[in-house]
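Postdoc handover notes: sequence design on the structure in folder B. Input tokens:
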């Protein structure tokens, strides 16, 4: 099983109590990785929110990934960082984080995919599979065929992100992609645990036999 299989990216609009509830319930439902994504809070709140969810994730052995900020990841001793194309360059991040931490990079074009083959990263986020209201500044939409082609030419794990929900999940999972990252399908569910279990069941039943 890939550690990226069902990857929750948190909703930065949710207050601390909601964040803790969503992460607790998503872990109960079987998420395999959690990224804390903060776009509005200051660095103190970012660290506070990371420390609030960290014990829940540690108890369940679910890695905590910090979005954008290597300093926050180092401060809380998170398991890794996810960087975009305008965040800290990956060589600098790898130098600061050391060889063991998980480092992910968003890939928004075929040229970036080619360049990523030579970078010291653990996985890429294929940005974005479909347009999504959760992040409106995505540069390119890979679609199902782009995802399949990327899987054919890139050797490290690929995480699909953007506009993935219950009704299009099976097709994405059937490509054999290593991970599926979701914000709203988990964070905005009425019953987070049940939604997570159900998403995971779709992923596992859609995978081609090895
Ligand atoms: C798993 C994953 N993939 C892509 C992204 C997007 O990162 P980025 O391009 O840096 O955009 P922001 O999330 O920082 O707005 C991601 N966060 N996670
Ligand atoms: C955080 C993020 N990054 C993306 C990218 O394509 O780089 S899309 C995205 C948000 C995904 O939200 P939802 O699952 O609600 O569509
Ligand atoms: Mg970023």
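Designed sequence:
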């Amino acid at each position: 099983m890939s550690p990226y299989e069902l990857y929750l990216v948190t909703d930065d609009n949710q207050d601390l109590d909601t964040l803790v509830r969503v992460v607790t319930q998503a872990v109960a439902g079987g998420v395999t990785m959690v990224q804390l994504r903060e776009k509005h809070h200051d660095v103190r709140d970012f660290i506070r929110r990371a420390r609030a969810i960290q014990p829940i994730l540690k108890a369940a052995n679910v890695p905590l990934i910090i979005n954008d900020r290597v300093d926050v990841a180092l401060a809380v001793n998170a398991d890794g960082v996810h960087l975009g194309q305008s965040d800290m360059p990956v060589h600098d991040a790898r130098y600061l984080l050391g060889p063991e931490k998980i480092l992910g990079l968003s890939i928004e074009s075929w040229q970036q995919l080619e360049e990523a083959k030579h970078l010291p990263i653990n996985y890429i986020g294929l940005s974005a599979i479909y347009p999504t209201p959760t992040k409106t500044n995505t540069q390119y939409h890979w679609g199902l065929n782009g995802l399949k082609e990327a899987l054919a030419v890139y050797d490290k794990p690929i995480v699909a992100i953007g506009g993935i929900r219950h009704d299009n999940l099976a097709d994405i999972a059937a490509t054999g992609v290593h991970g599926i990252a979701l914000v709203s399908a988990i964070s905005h569910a009425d019953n987070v645990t049940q939604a997570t279990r159900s998403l995971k069941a779709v992923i596992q039943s859609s995978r081609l036999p090895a």
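Context for whoever picks this up: The mean pLDDT is 97. Don't rerun without checking with the PI first.
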